[in-house]
Amino acid sequence: MMTSYKSILLLLCAATVSACGDNAVQKITDPGSGSFIKFHNFAVGAPGVNFYSDGSKITAISSTSGSESATGTTYPAAGVNGVANGSFYSSIAPGAHTFTARIPDNATTDKGLTISTATATLETGKYYSYFQSGFYSTTTKTADAFVIEDPFIPTFDYTVAYVRLVNASSNSQPLTLYAKNTTSLVETAEGGAVAYKSGGDFVAIPQGIYDLSGRYTGSSTNTVFKSAVSLLAGRVYTVTALGDATLSTTGTAGTRIVFNVTANR
Hints:
By secondary structure, the chain is an all-beta fold. It has two domains: 6-149, Carboxypeptidase-like, regulatory domain (Immunoglobulin-like, Sandwich), CATH 2.60.40.1120; 160-263, Immunoglobulin-like, CATH 2.60.40. The chain is 0% helix and 42% strand. It has strands at residues 6-7, 12-13, 25-26, 35-41, 50-53, 56-57, 90-92, 95-102, 114-122, 127-137, 142-149, 160-167, 175-181, 187-189, 198-199, 203-206, 208-216, 224-231, 236-242, 258-263. The strands form five sheets. A five-stranded mixed beta sheet has the order 1-7-4-10-11, with no helix packed on it. Strands 12, 15, 16, 19 and 20 form a five-stranded mixed beta sheet that branches. Strands 6-5-8-9 form a four-stranded antiparallel beta sheet, with no helix packed on it.
């Protein structure tokens, strides 16, 4: 691990999140003087990758041996979360950066190959996410990628949860996130329509268990659905739509469009 990068593991908390595997929770109390970023491998069919900034690796290095993961961060299938560094943010110097996702150097195929790239200028004290997205092409051996800010609420209310939608499904239309409380059965829209490679603002929502739906504008049919998601007061969640939007959300195909729920804090 390059000394200019460090994991900001401020506090590990247990949280009940119905997602693709258990997601760690990072408590952010002081933004400090740097910038912060986390990385997601959400491109359908993508191999495992390690993530780099300006040529320096910032994920998938063992702190004890210095050795590299042979698999990297993998696509979130079969219970794998698909978020690097245990879902934690990594600290990085503010400024312009070129971020890349590369197949691990000790992989058996295409070792060290860069498969996605995105550039962004990071500001002091702000948080960001890199999403490897869309579909991995076995012909060009590339995938899409984008970086967005994680705009945490300036005046935080610890009596409610916060949630936003990110759209990482390249063949979807703009999606609106709906949350239906499983007790009251009241359903509300959590923000507006979110196009591919973008994210909505964090919206306050009462603590509870929710069925989450993603729908196209003007449609009452769910394009994507996830049941019984626990949203805890004092936590901030990103709900990401990823996968193939042409496949039925009620089917069993591993590449169908799904929601991944990750706790940002």
